[in-house]
Amino acid sequence: KGLSLQGCEGLRLDSDKLVIPMMRGGYLQSLQTITPAGEKKYRAGCPVTGATFEIQRPAATLTCFAEGFATGLAIFQCVTDARVVVCFDAGNLVRVAEAAKPHGLTVVCADNDWHGSTNTGVDKGQKAADLMRCGLSYPKDIEGTDWADALKEWGSTARVKVEVMRGAKFVAAP
Which residues contact 81 (CB under 8 A, 6 or more apart)? Predict the structure, then answer.
């Protein structure tokens, strides 16, 4: 999706496929591969429920929970004071939120699946945000559906940052 390698530490290549570790509780739970054409697959027979890939940043002041890897990478590259928790899909975003105990400035960065009869990204994103008592942000007025698409269409890292931050909310420690 035209993103740089910033934030790709810990990833591997298998032939021409990007390999993303899916972690849960500090352990490798599964793998996701993404082809150059954007085809995504999970490792056969391995559970994905509750798994994440975290793109860490020292001294981050904001935690963003993102649906997919490209979305998370775009956010990380635009919001320079954020750490990003990649949840891999909308359903898993809710599963991750059920177990998460965020504190500080937090936002769910949902996809805007406005093309269909239902908007799964925004619906699941709102449910995850409600579970974590944090804010919700999703790209509006774009042809695509996610934050990587928004960055490409808007051509502005500053605009992505402003829109993501607009949804951020402070969550008190439990």
Answer: 57, 59, 60, 61, 62
